[in-house]
Amino acid sequence: ASRGIRTSLTTASSTSRWDLVALLLERGADPSIPASTGGTIAYRLERDGPPRDVEARRHYDRVRALLAARGVKFPAERPAVVRARVFGPDNPIDRPAREGRPPRAPS
């Protein structure tokens, strides 16, 4: 089984570094690749909400515009839906819950 997907883009978004996310998108990073949890850039953007800091908000808005320009739809799909679609129903995060065990934390 896969231990998960990590890209520069998913790492930058997981820490809400919207300045880096914008830079990576502008340089061609693929926003359709989800993290191992099924979280997408669009989902994290919505989950985090707009930052209060003016400069961070500018980058946040830029990321949203870049995603929209690439055809990303909002509201974003929930991670469980993405995991099932991308990794299949027998993915290592969801399988234990179906078997009555606690889910495994993503690595």
Could you characterize the architecture of this molecule?
The protein is mostly helical. The chain contains 6 helices and no strands. The protein is elongated. The model has no long low-confidence stretch (mean pLDDT 84).
Features:
mainly alpha; 6 helices; elongated
List the helices and strands and how they pair.
Blueprint: H1 8-14, H2 18-26, H3 41-48, H4 54-69, H5 79-87, H6 95-98
Strand-and-helix sequence, N→C?
A: HHHHHH
Question: What is the overall pLDDT average?
Answer: 84
What share of the residues lie within helices? 40-55%
Total strand count, please?
0
Give the helix tally: 6
Low-confidence stretches: none
The helix/strand class is mainly alpha
How far is it from the N-terminal to the C-terminal residue, by CA?
Answer: 12 Å
Q: In percent terms, what proportion of residues is strand?
A: under 5%
The main pleated sheet reads as: none
Shape: elongated
Radius of gyration in whole Å, from Cα? 15 Å
Brief summary of the model shown:
The chain has 107 residues and is mainly alpha-helical. It has helices at residues 8-14, 18-26, 41-48, 54-69, 79-87, 95-98.
